[in-house]
Amino acid sequence: MDLQHRRLKKLAMTSLILGILFVIVTTLIVTNHIAWFDNAVISAVQGLETNWLTSVMKFFTFIGSSLMATILSVLAFLFLMVVMKHRRELIMFLVAVGGSEIWNVVLKNIIHRARPNTHRLIEISGYSFPSGHSMAAFSLYGAITFLLWRHIPSFAGRVVMIIVGVVLTLLIGISRIYLGVHYPSDVFGGYLASATWLMISIALFEKYWRQPGIVK
Q1: pLDDT digits 0-9 by tens, 90-137
Q2: How do residues 141-178 score in pLDDT, each as one tens digit?
């Protein structure tokens, strides 16, 4: 079995597991068997409320907004196309980020989950599950990390890149719970949905778009 085949098999298995977990979370939401989890986490997170923390959480919600996601996507697009001259990587980036956004809209309009209606610190409309901020953050930072990984020579640089991406993604999700506009299961489900799609996007890249001979 060659290296590419093994990589594709691992990606397929990972995406399958993540997809199954997303289906489980969705089923628990639809059957109202996850309310205990949502209520416990909401109580813990919103119990930390202070004026300065509210300002911090509003900042991270802004970082995860459609406006900022669009700006970061354009910057990443230009970097990959103009600076790195990586046309194939650009395809993967567009599929991962754009596909995640499309999936979010589709899933929200299928499930029709209403947003929490208690103690909101900001107002927002639309359906609640899965969290669009969480999906956008996971796909955006996940795709950037994957594409830039092999171009960062030092181990320390790679670790810093991963830590920054993980911390930003988690804080964006937590900010949505803190501000009262999403259930924790919305955020967790958003991560699972986006991670599933990201693994599929990476698998497509590995099979069809990666530059021949590059196996890092």
Answers
A1: 888 889 999 999 999 999 999 999 999 888 888 888 899 999 999 999
A2: 999 888 888 778 788 888 898 999 899 999 999 999 99
Question: In a 3-state reduction of DSSP, which class is residue 180?
Answer: coil
DSSP 74-143: HHHHHIIIIIS--HHHHHHHHHHHHHHHHHHHHHHHHH-PPPP-SS-SS---S--SS-HHHHHHHHHHHH
- 182 assigned to active site: yes
Q: Tally Cβ neighbours within 10 Å of residue 88.
A: 15
Among 86, 119, 151, 182, which one carries the catalytic annotation? 182
| φ and ψ of 214, to 5 deg | -95, 115
Q: What's 209's DSSP letter?
A: I
Residues recorded for the chain: 216
pLDDT at 118: 81
What predicted TM-score, i.e. pTM, was given to this entire model? 0.89
SS3 43: helix
Which of 5, 33, 119, 133 is an active site residue? 133
Residue with tokens 């919305």: 186
Q: Rounded to an integer, what distance in angstroms lies between the CA atom of residue 196 and that of residue 208?
A: 18
Confirm whether 151 is a catalytic residue.
no
